[in-house]
């Protein structure tokens, strides 16, 4: 991997507002064309950058396997025209001849610390193209990687191909070492698009499946890790899918054992774009839908069977709509909603708010269907606020000129003590990130990262473009994250010409955002906890802050009777503590700094 530079940025703003502090910038290059799918803020407040790359290989040698690889969402196998098309889903064009080494894309991961310095880099390789689409933190500090593979068994991949493209899951620890992996698929083409961890420590994996026959044994369920044709059929008989592409949701336990599968779809094309966990332990799916309702399909929810099939009940308003699906914690559909006008409306992202959910994407529709706002030019951003039952609260549109593409969304919340003494959180602001593609006349800020900040009701507060000192011609944002300290990290690709993209990561400090962030001397997460908790210390002992390499603090855990259970000294801002030996109940975590400043917080063990 080659570092190109680490330097300051210049910021071009639309409004006269306070300047931002550029903390650092990193450009990362590993191959001719690198795709960036996601940036994950780790539990210890570091950053995992994931995408797909073709590692440099010299003298015909093969890089050591098991060292780590990741795919980019921008290089996803389907719908890639949105961010630069590469390999079409299910197309033989994306496949390479198998050989003693891989000449295709690998899963590629780079972990950075808070200062933007590399902690480790990993590749995971099959013998064909492998694309990493999504990553999620696990509660013990590791990650689950979910991607799409065209590879059979070989190199880092330990299972045979199930047929066509498959879903490839790899669980790793905080150092990038593999814990387990799993291949999910059937004779048809499957792809992974999103993954979340559930409250029971298991996972939901969402993706797409394209098939002529539904590859399930509806009488006997599934084999572990496979989707099967109904017994006694030739593959063209038996239960069929709903459209050209359907939604597939797989529920797994923490060890990767499949618990259930759900197929959703209408009479057309449906593609998962985003999935987020909900407060009740379920999931919210955001789907770009180009399909109508299935009427009289004869495919009811299979209920208690391992395979569940649910047809789309809501019709489309136009060419493409937002299709929102709420799942229960056991993977059953609770409700669905469809939003759109008569044009093409493409959902991109979702977020939780204090009142329900926020859904966003871009729209080419004028006022029509259930779209209450028009468009100004090209495509506009279209946001809809929903309550927890999916009913609309408000909707707004925003324009940057040309084709505006929304790639990320973060919600800022503040504590709101309730009458019962428990604290809930109120949404105070919404931070959006994306880029604008040129369509027709080229504007000065096309192909540049942008940020848009809104209040809780969707009213615009400010917008900014983020550029580098040596900004390249094509710069497209892939993800944006708001950190607990008020800083913002943007991750995307940068190139002089399309097809030669490398990764660009920028960390900004924003005084306006920082003022809205809840400040606490000590934070514990996750809380309640099952196995491991992270203690974040934000106390200034007068001579410095933890994380500067000099300041030290002592963390002590007590039971509610005052008995000391464990103690550890640390110089880190975030420290991992083992809670596996604690029984269910409440505990007190106390922190004491060099100059005897103290703070404490309650820890709940599940």
TrEMBL record:
Residues 1-19 form the signal peptide. InterPro entries: Secre_tail. Keywords: Signal. Residues 524-604 form the Secretion system C-terminal sorting domain. This is Por secretion system C-terminal sorting domain-containing protein. Residues 219-242 are annotated as: Disordered. Pfam families: Por_Secre_tail (PF18962). NCBIfam families: Por_Secre_tail. Transmembrane segments: none annotated. PANTHER family: ENDOGLUCANASE, LIPOPROTEIN. Residues 219-239 have a biased composition (Polar residues).
């Amino acid at each position: 991997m080659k570092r190109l530079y680490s330097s300051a940025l210049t910021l071009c703003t639309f409004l006269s507002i306070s300047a931002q502090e550029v903390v650092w910038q990193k450009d990362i290059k590993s191959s001719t064309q690198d795709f960036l799918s996601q940036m994950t803020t780790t539990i210890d407040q570091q950053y995992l950058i994931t995408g797909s790359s073709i590692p440099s290989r010299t003298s015909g040698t093969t890089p050591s396997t098991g060292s780590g690889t990741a795919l980019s969402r921008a290089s996803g196998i389907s719908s890639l025209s949105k961010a630069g098309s590469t390999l079409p889903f299910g197309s033989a064009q994306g496949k390479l001849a198998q050989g003693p080494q891989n000449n295709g894309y690998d899963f590629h991961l780079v972990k950075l610390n808070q200062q933007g310095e590399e902690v480790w880099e990993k590749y995971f390789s099959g013998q064909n193209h492998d694309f990493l689409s999504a990553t999620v933190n696990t509660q013990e500090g590791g990650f689950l990687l979910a991607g799409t593979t065209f590879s059979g068994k070989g190199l880092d991949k330990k299972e045979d191909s199930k047929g066509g493209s498959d879903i490839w899951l790899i669980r790793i620890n905080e150092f990038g070492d593999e814990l387990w992996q799993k291949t999910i698929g059937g004779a048809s083409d499957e792809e992974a698009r999103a993954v979340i961890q559930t409250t029971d420590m298991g996972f939901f994996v969402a993706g797409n499946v394209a098939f002529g026959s539904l590859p399930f044994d509806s009488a006997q369920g599934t084999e572990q890790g496979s989707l099967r044709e109904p017994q006694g059929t030739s593959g063209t008989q038996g239960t069929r899918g709903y459209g050209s592409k359907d939604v597939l949701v797989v529920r797994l336990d923490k060890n990767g054992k499949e618990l259930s599968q759900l197929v959703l779809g209408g009479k057309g094309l449906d593609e998962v774009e985003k999935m987020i966990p909900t407060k009740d332990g379920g999931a919210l799916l955001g789907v770009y839908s180009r399909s109508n309702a299935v009427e009289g399909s004869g495919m009811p929810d299979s209920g208690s069977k391992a395979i569940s099939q649910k047809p789309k009940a809501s019709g489309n308003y136009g060419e493409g709509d937002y299709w929102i699906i709420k799942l229960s914690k056991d993977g059953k559909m609770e409700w669905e909603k469809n939003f759109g006008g008569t044009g093409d409306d493409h959902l991109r992202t979702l977020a939780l708010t204090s009142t329900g959910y926020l859904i966003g994407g871009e729209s080419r529709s004028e006022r029509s269907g259930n779209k209450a706002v028009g468009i100004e030019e090209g495509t506009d951003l279209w946001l809809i606020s929903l309550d927890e039952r999916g009913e609309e609260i408000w909707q707004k549109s925003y324009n940057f000129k040309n084709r505006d593409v929304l790639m990320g969304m973060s919600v800022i919340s503040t504590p709101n003590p309730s009458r019962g003494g428990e604290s809930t959180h109120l949404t105070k602001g919404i931070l959006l990130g994306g880029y604008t593609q040129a369509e027709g006349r080229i504007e000065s800020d096309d192909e540049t990262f942008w940020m848009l900040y809104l209040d809780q009701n969707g009213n615009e507060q400010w917008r900014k473009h983020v550029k580098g000192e040596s900004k390249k011609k094509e710069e497209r944002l892939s993800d944006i994250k708001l950190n607990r300290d008020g800083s913002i990290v943007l991750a995307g690709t940068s190139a002089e010409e399309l097809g030669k993209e490398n990764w660009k990561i920028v960390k900004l400090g924003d005084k306006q955002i920082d003022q809205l962030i809840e400040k606490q001397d000590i934070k514990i997460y996750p809380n309640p906890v099952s196995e491991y908790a992270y203690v974040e210390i934000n106390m200034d002992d007068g001579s410095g802050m933890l994380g500067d390499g000099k300041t030290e603090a002592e963390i002590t855990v007590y039971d509610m009777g005052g008995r000391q259970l464990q103690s550890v000294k640390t110089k880190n801002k975030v420290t991992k503590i083992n809670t596996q030996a604690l029984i269910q109940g409440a505990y007190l975590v106390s922190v004491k700094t060099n100059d005897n400043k103290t703070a404490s917080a309650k820890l709940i063990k599940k």
